[in-house]
Design brief:
Layout: H1 15-27, H2 32-41, H3 43-51, H4 60-68, H5 76-86, H6 92-110, H7 114-121, H8 134-167, H9 171-176, E1 179-180, H10 190-200, H11 208-217, E2 225-236, E3 238-260, E4 263-284, E5 288-304, E6 307-325, E7 328-339, H12 345-351, H13 366-382, H14 395-404, H15 409-419, E8 444-446, E9 458-460, H16 465-477, H17 485-490, E10 492-494, E11 505-509, E12 516-525, E13 531-537, E14 541-545, E15 554-558, E16 577-586, H18 590-593, E17 611-613, E18 623-626, E19 629-635, H19 639-642, E20 647-651, H20 655-661, E21 664-672
Parallel strand pairs: 1-7, 16-20, 17-19
Antiparallel strand pairs: 2-7, 3-4, 5-6, 8-9, 10-15, 11-12, 11-15, 12-13, 13-14, 16-21, 17-20, 18-19, 18-21
């Protein structure tokens, strides 16, 4: 069932989007062949009329003529234009509206960044690619820009490590203190970057290689890194050895026994004595009294053919009472590094643009033209200038919010799953998804579900309100709430306000009182005591807030959900037990594993994805599930892991990936102890 008809505040709909939807529907009424023929007949007149409406620095008339003639038939707009012409004799009332739309559309197309449109429309004398569309060209350009930005982000991570290592600061404390705004922000606007590059060359002579080279030149400045040196008092545990007893034959007396064949002979008197040797090294964070030992050097026999033929000196230990060991403290310096959000001002430097200078042929500044070009690209692809305004939660914010809620582990797991999408997934009418992360989110797709002004437009793919609630429960506990708000209403039951717990649902009735047009997940309470809800909303995407209509919500609880179940995976049977763990990540490099890193685990196996390091409390072969993924214990790590049974270090193949994954707390499930 599709989402009920509704118009949400701030969902980004506009007249362009509605016109695009109408035109797209019209395009489907005729065949491609008939459309192409009709378009060819009226191409010249349309091109001339359209060209008169625009002032473009790049052969705008030529570009428009090619579009109207259907030379971009492989793209979405060639079909729309052709369809409008094919129907002009029978649907002239609609045609008037479509013609107005065409004028707007042509203006938009001429305003698109040339680096996106060259392969589609054959600008600057290039041959159009018959298989290219605006969507595919943008997707390709977006991938290119994203790769550069990803590399720039890696540079910022490397800079953090350089600061820590060059300054001799404590690595673990510094990485724990890292403030990473780059991960929690949009970081960059691909449309803006493509527009800026195209404008820098006044829409002519743009190439991917040139753009990438210029972006790479300023990559190290895209995510600025600053740091502050801080100190922390740290307890230094006492280290001591336990000793094991050994029985040793020692020589107590040596007597000369003459000379045989020129060789001196000796008689040896021996005695069996008990001494001690170091056994295990241990630590204590509290004052402790331990046995004391003193070093002694003794003479022991050397045997040959069962006879004593000489002696050697050996070191052992003797009991020497007891000693009191007391831990000390030390002041540790660490670097609190901050990776700042993407700095958009460096784009102007990359492409040599004076944003205040006048753009040729227009009485506008470069800054204004670039913004207009970026907006034209967004409007053409998505039918809207906005894609949502929610900011992702940082790991620290998410964990702090979840831990504040008074509910059981299952409900906290459901809540954590829901909050993991805040600011990361846009609203998409009719958007549904299977459990787990969907790589298609945030990619341009056609809205096909009926009942919205966005129907028939291209938008960044995401989830609608019921799609989000269904995804959350499928991902967290493997239970579908079914599609649509009506279906989820039927698969839930009413609860009182006093019963409300995180994971419960709230339904909003439409203005007419005839049905339900929005569903939300109750998240719990904020620091100020206000009730918070997480939901996917038009124009915003998945976000956490206290909606203005909160008092009008009907409170319900999903059926067929066991909120007291252990959160695990039935594919592996029942877990033995659960535990709270602190998760970190490592690779096989010397920075993670020390100077003697060989890529071999403590169990003797070569490191591979799916392996973790844990304390010797867990034998090799132990299976542990973390966030739905099963891992096997094959490695140990240093004292920080050995002395903490709640620490898990997950192997990843790349050092930058290890840095990106970071450190967090979660619930893990033990499925097997040892092999």
């Amino acid at each position: 069932m599709a989402e009920p008809t509704k118009q949400q505040f701030g969902d980004g709909q506009d007249n362009f989007g509605q016109a695009a939807g109408q035109a797209a529907k019209a395009a489907k009424e005729v065949s491609k062949q008939a459309a192409a023929q009709a378009a060819a007949k009226g191409a010249e007149a349309t091109a001339n009329a359209a060209a008169a409406t625009v002032q473009a620095g790049v052969e705008g008339g030529k570009a428009v003529a090619e579009i109207a003639a259907g030379t971009a038939a492989g793209g979405p707009w060639g079909a729309i234009i052709s369809a409008a012409w094919a129907m002009r004799h029978t649907l002239y009332k609609i045609l008037i509206c479509v013609c107005l739309f065409l004028t707007v559309l042509i203006i938009l197309i001429v305003s698109l960044p040339s680096i996106v449109t060259e392969s589609v429309f054959g600008l600057n004398g290039t041959q159009p690619d018959p298989n290219a569309t605006l969507e595919s060209s943008y997707s390709e350009m977006s991938d290119v820009v994203s790769a550069v930005i990803d590399d720039a982000y890696d540079l910022s991570l490397n800079r953090v490590e350089e600061i820590i290592l060059d300054g001799g600061y404590d690595y673990d404390l510094s990485m724990d203190a890292l403030i990473n705004h780059a991960q929690s922000s949009a970081g960059y606007d691909v449309c803006y970057i493509l527009a800026a590059y195209s404008a820098s060359l006044q829409q002519q002579g743009t190439t991917v290689d040139d753009m990438v080279a210029k972006l790479n030149a300023i990559a190290s400045r895209m995510f600025p890194v600053t740091y502050e040196v801080k100190t922390q008092e740290r307890l230094v545990p006492v280290t001591y050895s336990t000793y094991k007893s050994v029985t040793v034959t020692v020589v107590t007396r040596i007597e000369a026994a003459g000379i045989v064949n020129g060789i001196p002979r000796y008689n040896y008197t021996t005695e069996r004595k008990t001494y001690y040797l170091p056994d295990e090294t241990k630590e204590s964070e509290e004052e402790i009294t331990v046995p004391a030992y003193k070093e002694v050097t003794v003479t022991v026999p050397v045997y040959s053919g069962g006879q004593i033929t000489g002696t050697r000196r050996a070191t052992y230990y003797e009991s020497d009472g007891t000693e009191v060991l007391e831990p000390t403290t030390e002041i540790i310096e660490y670097a609190e590094c901050t990776i700042h959000p993407f700095d958009n001002t460096v784009i102007a430097d990359a492409f040599g643009i004076d944003m205040s200078a006048e753009y040729p042929q227009f009485k506008l500044t470069y800054g204004e033209v670039i913004q207009n070009m970026a907006n034209a690209l967004k409007m053409t692809l998505y039918g809207t200038l906005g894609n949502g305004t929610a900011v992702p939660l940082t790991d620290a914010e998410l964990i702090a919010f979840v831990n504040r809620q008074n509910c059981n582990a299952t409900r906290k797991h459901i809540l954590t799953t829901a909050l993991s999408l805040v600011g990361k997934v846009p609203y998409f009418w009719g958007g549904k998804s299977a459990a787990g992360w969907n790589d298609e989110w945030n990619t341009p797709k056609l809205v096909t579900s009926a009942g919205s002004s966005s129907t028939g437009t291209i938008r960044p793919f995401g989830l609608d309100c019921s799609g989000f609630t269904d995804w959350t429960y499928k991902t967290a506990v493997g239970v579908s709430l079914h599609a649509g708000t009506y279906g989820q209403w039927d698969n839930s039951y009413a609860i009182d306000e006093s019963e409300l717990l995180p994971g419960d649902l709230g339904f909003l009735m439409n203005d007419g009182g005839s049905g339900w047009n929005h569903v939300l997940i109750f998240a719990g309470y904020g620091e100020d005591g206000s009730r918070k809800w997480v939901h996917s909303e038009g124009g915003i995407g998945v976000h956490l807030n206290t909606p203005s209509y909160e008092g009008r919500l009907s409170l319900r609880r999903p059926k067929n959900v066991d909120f007291d179940q252990e959160v695990g995976s039935s594919a592996y049977g029942e877990p033995l037990y659960s535990l709270q763990v602190n998760v970190t990540h490592y690779c096989a490099c010397t920075r993670c594993c020390g100077p003697n890193a060989q890529g071999i685990t403590a169990s003797g196996k070569r490191v591979a994805v799916g392996m973790v390091a844990m304390s010797s409390h867990y034998p090799f072969g132990t299976q542990i599930m973390i966030n739905g993924i099963m891992y096997t214990v094959e490695d140990r790590g240093g004292s920080g892991i050995e002395n903490n049974i709640g620490r898990v270090d997950i192997y990843v193949p790349d050092h930058n990936e290890a840095l990106r994954m970071g450190r967090y707390d979660t619930t893990a499930y033990i499925y097997r102890i040892g092999r």
